[in-house]
């Protein structure tokens, strides 16, 4: 029976199992309060369980229990199935307005101080005071290793990185658009968000989203018909939602490069226009399949200059050049980044082999006053323009096929060793000297 009870709690408090965009909020009235399920997609609410009147904040533990702080100093647990309310701890006569379940299994209540609460024994430990003039406006939210606090400071309303063990070392992250009472977190892989409920004594209340990556705020719902006192979602909570990607790999000019020899390098014709998130990098790429650029990358380079790699590349094959942007993975762009982006256009490059020529002769002896044909064989692309030296001096000859002959006629009176030597060779693409 205990096992069945546990399954039911998980079903109620983790709607991501059915892919609902649900977070939780507590209403604030002197008479009665409730925990609501708030659907961020439809901006509708549904009651979950009654909680003590005057609750300032709530949080959700991994076991499905809801914990609340009410009357500023009382910490209690609420069973979502039975509605049973159980005392947990009493703070040392210092009012608290925010409550969160810690990753270490303790509760944390905040005001101008932080209190660490053992949910089993009820022991309360004062962890210290925030910087002078700082006080919580009603919430502490955990997301991806950071505890975010909504704080009123001498500099105004601020979103703060809360140091649980040394509150005085807490740091301001950015401005808050207004005072917030309750908060939750959505650990989306691309754009994690904080969900904040505006404390407004005259409903309807607003729900705001804070994008952690871009540090921007926007209204998610503006029609919540309750005064909201607190909010939460299970730690590391997530659900599917549309997340716009801003990452842009910029632009590359569409042009072709034919390079001669494997020592030649090419510069990616990048024209700029990249847009990178805080965790993004830009890299220049060479790939081999135009129908699958990301899946056929042979080279990612931080520099725009790319050379030939004989271990992965072939002379005469066409490759493609572009840019890629996305999350940094050990200096390379992570190809599984949901916001991975490649340049809209690509250039192409082909490394061509240098032309070669070889000489051969059937008869090594030539009589004085006679001529001898020397066979020439080429590699490369026709036509071939060959310049060579012989006893008659420098000569140039054009060949329309991959083989031919040059006629060597020793000058009158010449006796001795006759040498034929290539000086330069040009084919349809390259020159070799």
Oligomer: single chain
Helicity level: under 10%
The CATH class label of the largest domain is Mainly Beta
Find the CATH superfamily of the largest domain.
Answer: TolB, C-terminal domain
- Residue stretches low in confidence (pLDDT < 50, at least 5 long) are 1-18
Domain module count: 3
Strand % is: over 45%
What is the overall shape?
rod-shaped
Question: How confident is the prediction overall: mean pLDDT?
Answer: 88
The CATH topology of the largest domain is what?
A: Neuraminidase
Topology:
Blueprint: H1 2-13, E1 22-27, E2 33-39, E3 44-51, E4 55-60, E5 66-70, E6 74-78, E7 85-90, E8 98-101, E9 107-110, E10 113-117, E11 124-129, E12 135-143, E13 146-153, E14 156-162, E15 171-175, E16 180-186, E17 193-198, E18 205-211, E19 216-224, E20 228-232, E21 248-252, E22 256-260, E23 265-267, E24 270-275, E25 280-287, E26 297-301, E27 305-307, E28 318-329, E29 332-333, E30 341-342, E31 347-352, E32 356-360, E33 372-379, E34 384-390, E35 393-399, E36 403-408, E37 421-426, E38 431-432
Parallel strand pairs: 22-31
Antiparallel strand pairs: 1-2, 1-20, 2-3, 4-5, 5-6, 6-7, 8-9, 9-10, 10-11, 12-13, 13-14, 14-15, 16-17, 17-18, 18-19, 21-24, 23-27, 25-26, 25-28, 28-29, 28-30, 28-31, 32-33, 33-36, 34-35, 34-37, 37-38
């Amino acid at each position: 029976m205990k096992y069945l009870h546990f399954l039911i709690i998980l079903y109620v408090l983790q709607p991501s199992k059915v892919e609902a965009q649900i977070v939780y909020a507590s209403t604030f009235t002197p008479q009665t309060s409730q925990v609501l399920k708030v659907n961020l997609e439809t901006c509708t609410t549904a009651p979950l369980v009654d909680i003590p009147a005057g609750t300032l904040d709530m949080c959700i533990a991994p076991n499905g229990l809801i914990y609340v702080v009410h009357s500023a100093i009382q910490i209690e647990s609420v069973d979502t199935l039975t509605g049973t309310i159980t005392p947990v701890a009493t703070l040392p006569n210092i009012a608290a307005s925010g409550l969160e379940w810690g990753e270490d299994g303790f509760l944390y209540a905040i005001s101008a101080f932080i209190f660490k609460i053992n949910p089993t024994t009820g022991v309360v430990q004062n962890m210290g005071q925030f910087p002078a003039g700082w006080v919580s406006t009603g919430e502490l939210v955990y997301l991806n290793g950071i505890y975010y606090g909504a704080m009123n400071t001498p500099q105004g309303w601020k979103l703060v990185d809360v140091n649980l063990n040394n509150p005085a070392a807490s740091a301001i992250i950015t401005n808050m658009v207004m005072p917030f009472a309750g908060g939750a977190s959505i650990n989306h892989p691309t754009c994690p968000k904080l969900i904040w409920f505006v404390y407004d004594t005259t409903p309807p209340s607003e729900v705001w989203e804070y994008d952690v990556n871009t540090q921007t705020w926007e209204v998610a719902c503006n029609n919540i018909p309750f005064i909201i006192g607190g909010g939460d979602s299970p730690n590391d909570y997530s659900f599917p939602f549309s997340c716009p990607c801003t990452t842009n790999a910029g632009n590359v000019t569409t042009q072709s490069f034919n390079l001669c020899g494997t020592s030649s390098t090419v510069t990616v014709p990048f024209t700029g226009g990249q847009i990178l998130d805080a965790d993004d990098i830009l890299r220049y790429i060479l790939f081999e399949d135009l129908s699958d650029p990301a899946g056929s990358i042979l080279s990612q380079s931080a520099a725009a200059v790319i050379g030939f790699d004989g271990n992965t590349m072939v002379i005469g094959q066409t490759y493609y050049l572009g840019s890629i942007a996305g999350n940094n993975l050990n200096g390379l762009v992570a190809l599984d980044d949901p916001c991975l982006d490649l340049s809209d256009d690509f250039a192409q490059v082909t490394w061509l082999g240098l032309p070669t020529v070889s000489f051969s002769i059937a008869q090594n002896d030539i009589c004085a006053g006679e001529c001898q044909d020397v066979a020439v064989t080429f590699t490369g692309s026709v036509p071939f323009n060959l310049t060579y030296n012989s006893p008659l001096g420098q000569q140039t000859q054009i060949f329309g096929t991959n083989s031919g002959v040059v006629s060597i006629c020793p000058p009158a009176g010449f006796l001795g060793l006759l040498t034929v030597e290539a000086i330069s060779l040009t084919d349809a693409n390259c020159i070799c000297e």
